[in-house]
């Protein structure tokens, strides 16, 4: 992607500090273990900031939005005007919101916070108010085609240090189910990279009634094997109607879940009223949300317990901090989205925010592969079940151009579901 060098800043916002004008803005696309889009901003005095702009399965749409529409607006602007730049990019486009726009804005926002923290000479979380805790509790993804395989996966995650475990399992009669690592994939472990590198998305099958019958028996077995203390999570991945979600939440109450995630498509926020009426199982929602408007009813009516948005897809640190402050008024906590379609840049941004906010809940953590770690050099750590962003100035992530060049973009799609009668269903 090209780098632009204008003579003046758009809107005549001249830099207020020596050398703080944005000199270059580069949109970097690489595909080590999966496709990533990264924005790299450099100021006149040579300070570099990184932002994650990855939108799984639609990566090039954000890359184009950035390079064709946003980069020309950034060059010459004062890198320290983070809030002003956020509002300018959000409001000046007129066509607001949506995953492409908000991922692009997020990349700019995080890169600017990275720059500001480096100039300040401190890790980013210090600029967000300092640490509110010593570590960030993380949960890992255990799965299996049957109970013995699932139990092995849970034990393996516990040996890695995870104290909290998400449980996903195959369902009798369904050939392929989201999140089950043991199922084959053209690109490796299923829960590591479900986006398959192919010209068309893979088709999977789905049967809600079979799922609803099976899942409570799985959690009964897991609790019997691992006891009552382990925090257990489960992801319904938007595949249930509200009344089906209410039934599952009620059926899972004896097994004391930490949360039931994405039990029903929540674009219809009022649907969660029905779920809430029938179950006390905690609910987590929001990984496909992009702005505070997606949460208005859910938060105000206390219909969820955890906010699942990613820094990368929700307008960056500035915007997600505002959402979480709103949620905190209703004792709703964070559960920031952190799978491998969030780059190490986006993950580091989440960790700095996690450490600073008061209403932290838990952090999703899927470990990236060796090739991704070669491209994105990280300083954040995972030890004894807890993450920490580290003490390096800024985000604590650097981008290796030479390594990235070895992994060019490869077209990839997430799978999709069909019911037994051929109807396309939520994946």
TrEMBL record:
GO terms, molecular function: magnesium ion binding; mannonate dehydratase activity
InterPro entries in alphabetical order: D-mannonate_dehydratase-like (IPR034589), DgoD-like (IPR034593), Enolase-like_C_sf (IPR036849), Enolase-like_N (IPR029017), Enolase_C-like (IPR029065), Mandel_Rmase/mucon_lact_enz_CS (IPR018110), Mandelate_racemase_C (IPR013342), Mandelate_racemase_N_dom (IPR013341)
Domain Mandelate racemase/muconate lactonizing enzyme C-terminal, first and last residues per copy: 147-282
Gene3D superfamilies attached to this UniProt entry: Enolase-like C-terminal domain (3.20.20.120), Enolase-like, N-terminal domain (3.30.390.10)
GO biological process terms, semicolon-separated: amino acid catabolic process; carbohydrate catabolic process
Pfam families per record: MR_MLE_C, MR_MLE_N
Annotated signal peptide: none
Name of the molecule in the record: Starvation-sensing protein RspA
Organism of derivation: Cellulomonas terrae
């Amino acid at each position: 992607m090209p780098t632009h060098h204008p003579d003046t800043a758009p809107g005549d916002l001249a830099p207020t500090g020596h050398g703080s004008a944005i000199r270059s803005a580069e949109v970097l696309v690489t595909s080590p273990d999966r496709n990533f889009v990264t924005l790299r901003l450099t100021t006149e005095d040579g300070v570099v900031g990184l932002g994650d702009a990855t939108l799984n399965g639609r990566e090039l749409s954000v890359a184009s939005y950035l390079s064709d529409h946003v980069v020309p607006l950034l060059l010459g602007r004062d890198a320290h005007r983070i809030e002003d730049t956020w509002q300018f990019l959000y409001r000046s486009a007129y066509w607001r919101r949506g995953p492409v726009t908000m991922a692009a804005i997020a990349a700019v926002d995080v890169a600017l916070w990275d720059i500001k923290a480096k100039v300040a000479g401190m890790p980013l979380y210090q600029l967000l108010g300092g640490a509110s805790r010593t570590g960030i509790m993380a949960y890992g993804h255990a799965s299996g085609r049957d109970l013995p395989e699932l139990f092995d996966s849970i034990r393996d995650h516990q040996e890695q240090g995870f104290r909290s475990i998400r449980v996903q399992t195959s369902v009798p009669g369904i050939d392929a189910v989201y999140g089950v690592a043991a199922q084959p994939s053209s690109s490796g472990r299923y829960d590591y990279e479900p986006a398959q590198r192919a010209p068309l998305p893979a088709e999977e099958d789905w049967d809600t009634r079979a799922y609803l019958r099976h899942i409570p028996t799985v959690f009964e077995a897991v609790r019997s094997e691992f006891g009552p203390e382990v925090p257990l999570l489960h992801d319904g991945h938007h595949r249930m109607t509200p009344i089906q979600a209410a039934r599952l939440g009620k059926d899972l109450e004896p097994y004391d879940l930490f949360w039931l995630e994405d039990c029903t498509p929540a674009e219809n926020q009022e649907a969660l009223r029905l779920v809430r009426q029938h179950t006390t199982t905690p609910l987590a929602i929001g990984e496909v949300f992009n702005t505070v408007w997606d949460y208005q009813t859910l938060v105000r009516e206390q219909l969820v317990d955890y906010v699942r948005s990613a820094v990368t897809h929700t307008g960056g640190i500035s915007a997600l901090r505002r959402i979480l402050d709103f949620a905190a008024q209703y004792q709703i906590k964070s559960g920031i989205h952190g799978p491998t379609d969030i780059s190490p840049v986006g993950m580091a941004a989440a960790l700095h925010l996690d450490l600073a906010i008061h209403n932290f809940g838990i952090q999703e953590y899927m470990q990236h592969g060796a090739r991704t770690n070669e491209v994105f050099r990280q300083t954040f750590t995972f030890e004894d079940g807890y993450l920490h962003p580290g003490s390096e100035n800024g985000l604590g992530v650097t981008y290796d151009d030479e390594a990235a060049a070895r992994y060019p973009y490869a077209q990839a799609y997430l799978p999709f579901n069909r019911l037994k009668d051929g109807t396309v269903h939520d994946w």
